[in-house]
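Section 4.2 – Deliverable D4.2 (structural model, holo form)

The reporting period included a commitment to supply a predicted holo structure for the target in complex with adenosine monophosphate. Inputs used:
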Amino acid sequence: MEKVIGIDLGTFNSCVAVLENQTPVVIANRGGYKVTPSMVAITEAGKRLVGHIAKRQAVTNAENTVYAAKRLIGRKFDSAQVKNSMATCPYRIVDGPHDDCRIQLRDKVYSIPEISAMVLQEMKVISEDYLGHEIQKAVVTVPAYFNDGQRQATKDAGAIAGLDVIRIINEPTAAALAYGFGKQIDRTVAVYDLGGGTFDISILEISSEGVFKVISTAGDTFLGGEDFDQRIIDWLVQGFKEEHSTDLRQDRMALQRLKDAAEKAKCELSGVTETEVNLPFIISSTRNEALHLQRLLTRAQLEELTDDLVARTVQICEMTLEEAGLDKDEIEDVIMVGGMTRMPRVQAAVSEFFEREPCKGVHPDEVVGLGAAIQGSALVDDSIDMVLLDVTPHTLGIMVVGEYFEELIPQNSTVPTSRSKEFTTVKDNQTAVKIIVFQGESRRAKENELLGEFILTGLRRAPAGEVTVDVTFEINADGIVSVFAKDLDTGKEQSITVTASSGLTEDELDQMVEEAREFAVARRTDEGMEEAKQQAETLIAEIEKLFPEVEQVVAGSDFGRDAITKARSVVDATRELMERGDAAGLKEQIDALSRTHRMFKGVVGKAG
Ligand code: AMP
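Output (structure tokens):
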């Protein structure tokens, strides 16, 4: 059975898992970590770094190190969220060709899906290293509250990374799958998911027959751990300004150090009640004196600084319950997901609201990846009895006269789903109709997210109202929207892909896939070469060391002379392969080198 990996593509960390013997397991990266930072950097030498290695050099290469790209995916350059990121991120966010935002790293501009693809490619390699074979298919998770543009952009990222993303699933739903898989329980659960960048809440019914049905979902794609960090940063910057009349925001390096220190302090305060933020030589004063930042932060202060953020999550929980038509006491279990749920105040707020302790035994960093792996296997393996019924988080509709929003598919409708609507011409001899599609909850179309617009052409010339076009709006299981139109007059059909104006064109996508593929091949060869080189060098050094002894032992014998000549030529050929950078040849040569090494050890051993 083909293996399908599950990837939790997080704002700050990503995690990859696979189902083995009906049990989902998280795959550790080469460093032994089960989560990999979703960070990408380009070094001065033009080298691409992903994961821990990118994180480690972030302070010294802040402008060319990207974190939290997920906050930008599928967003328009002029959106408030992007402006907000531009004010706080040390890397350069620039205007893209389709109203989208892009990131400039050194002299190249990257689309956000390309950046996410680098992380996905890394997760693919981690799984391939572990499984020992190539992986093609994946299930990737997204926040439940992602709209069509954000989902499509995530799917594009998968394609660029060389992955066939067979399903996009919602993070809280994935968590519920991991929680309920194989348990045969009937239960109504709430999944509270507060990660680095996003907040989601979903209410699900789990049945003992393996049906996972989402009843309602809500969230905020711009509310997460980073906002908590930002509050600490603001507090530190303000305090520093009062004390030294110096604005730390002027200095990108200082800002990056502050960011790291703020996050560290926040995490520490989940375990202790006070911590010291200590950043020596943070900046120089106008008189060129080195200034140091040193401040004590207590858990109570942190809670005060972030009180409204926690309250907002609770407010969204309340709305979701209402939407689901349920009372708090009907929720039988609360599953906590995301690193931020380690914060005691968050745990207390959730317990207070649901009037029960959250369920134990679910790992907040791994549960989403595990759920994605379960869903991935269920999609290719008929023997797994599991049905997932998710919902669309936003209402889908079109703009009508007066710029009002006409609802077609309401939020929280189970997906896949479709709805048809008939349009008639309003003018005589009208040969085209323009349809503008939005997603959101406002009555005013333009206050919602524009998904795209299309024009149906080639209509028969006729008096107004005589030509009717039937348009079907479809949301698939990934939550992605497509539109099909049929001219009822002629029976002619047109299929239209609603490409978000912030998305990539097909040509751009093809080019990015090609570039990433070349990079993946180059990287693999590179990595293979590095490993093989190291092995070869170690073996050569050992053989060289043994030469004098072996020569002594075999001196005078023809067999011995032949063996030495052969060994020399093996070593020389290996050096040549290393010089040529022939990774494949070198890997084969290592066998010959190992044999020579074994033979030499044997000769020396016998002699001893
Ligand atoms: P996630 O997106 O689920 O990987 O969550 C990452 C977020 O969780 C980041 O904002 C982290 O700073 C935060 N986080 C991780 N561990 C802790 C902790 N012990 N206490 C508070 N926040 C944490």
